Amino acid sequence: MPYINIKVAGKISVEQKKEIAKDISDSIQRVLGKSKKSCYIVFDEVERENWAVGDMLLSEKKKDG
Amino acid sequence: MPYINIKVAGKISVEQKKEIAKDISDSIQRVLGKSKKSCYIVFDEVERENWAVGDMLLSEKKKDG
Amino acid sequence: MPYINIKVAGKISVEQKKEIAKDISDSIQRVLGKSKKSCYIVFDEVERENWAVGDMLLSEKKKDG
Amino acid sequence: MPYINIKVAGKISVEQKKEIAKDISDSIQRVLGKSKKSCYIVFDEVERENWAVGDMLLSEKKKDG
Amino acid sequence: MPYINIKVAGKISVEQKKEIAKDISDSIQRVLGKSKKSCYIVFDEVERENWAVGDMLLSEKKKDG
Amino acid sequence: MPYINIKVAGKISVEQKKEIAKDISDSIQRVLGKSKKSCYIVFDEVERENWAVGDMLLSEKKKDG
């Protein structure tokens, strides 16, 4: 019954979400033997001004890692 | 001092939020003996393209369960 | 596909968890029309020294609300 | 490697986010000896109709505490 | 700067954690172009009596999916 | 009504928790004007084998940053 939450800074595409969800659910199934359908994956696209690394907001940086 | 986070796919109405918050805080008060006012309940309305079940985004499905 | 996380300070019994899970999944089903089986509920029993209200840890208080 | 998530009801300004991120990463560095750059801080600005205290949504109240 | 949280019911081995962390950070790097080292992955091994599917605790079931 | 969750790798002392809770609730009060008592702060002390940076578990490293 895994539940996975993925937080990323900024927007990502539907295709990227699908590809990551596939990779993660494949991994969970292969490594833990859990059915893919039992696996909930929730993405949070965090605005860059809402993510700080130390005292610097990502919106102030040129590019995040 | 319970803290409850509820993630649902898609939008729900203010009336639905009120009804769920009432049910949950009633339950917490009755079962655990905590005051309602100590109970924080936060809803996250997750866009359907941000919720995957296994490798399928909910936005690709006809209807979620 | 709701996902609910409940954080409480201190330990609660299995019977209390069952009762709260029943109340919440009943509410989700009645108010949102989601099947109970699609509803994941995860409890976190937080040690009282790991929960602060303002600058006071609950382990320092006589009783939480 | 601390990860900090801050949920507030309503919007806050970029300046407020910067000031809070500075205070928290300073505290983590001073108290725990972790480098600021290892510290991720994520803000969630929760709509007031998505935050309940007991059975009352904050959007129904005059003012939150 | 992705942050990933993985909740599973019951204990998993160190080897399983390493394999899943590798798969996920590989995916994040390949799909999103983020460096692996910017990726924090946190596992929560949830006791089965703390995870309910609807009104049934996993500790009451024979086996989770 | 802020809610703050702090995840750190490994154990920290009660004194460290108190100091961090004081710093954070002071900051929230000063910057946002919220009362300290409305501020819930929850610490998660994550075992080092449950925290990965990229594909490396912290338990495999000499020291985290």
Architecture blueprint of SSEs:
The structure is a homohexamer of 65-residue chains.
Chain A: E1 3-9, H1 14-32, E2 40-46, E3 51-53, E4 56-57
Parallel strand pairs in A: 1-2
Antiparallel strand pairs in A: 3-4
Write a compact overview of the structure shown.
The first copy, chain A, is α+β, with helices and mostly antiparallel strands and 65 residues long.
List keywords for this structure.
Macrophage Migration Inhibitory Factor, two-stranded parallel sheet, alpha+beta, 65 residues, homohexamer, 1 helix
The whole-number mean of residue pLDDT values of chain A reads 94
**How many structurally independent domains of chain A?**
1
Low-confidence stretches of chain A: none
> What is the straight-line distance between the termini of chain A?
31 Å
Give me the number of helical elements of chain A: 1
Give the largest interface pair and sizes: A-E, 29 and 29 residues
CATH architecture of chain A: 2-Layer Sandwich
CATH fold category name of chain A: Macrophage Migration Inhibitory Factor
Instruction: Name the CATH class of chain A.
Output: Alpha Beta
Instruction: Tell me the quaternary state.
Output: homohexamer
How many beta strands in the DSSP annotation of chain A?
4
User: Going across the major beta sheet of chain A, what is the strand order?
Assistant: 1-2
Order of helices and strands of chain A: EHEEE
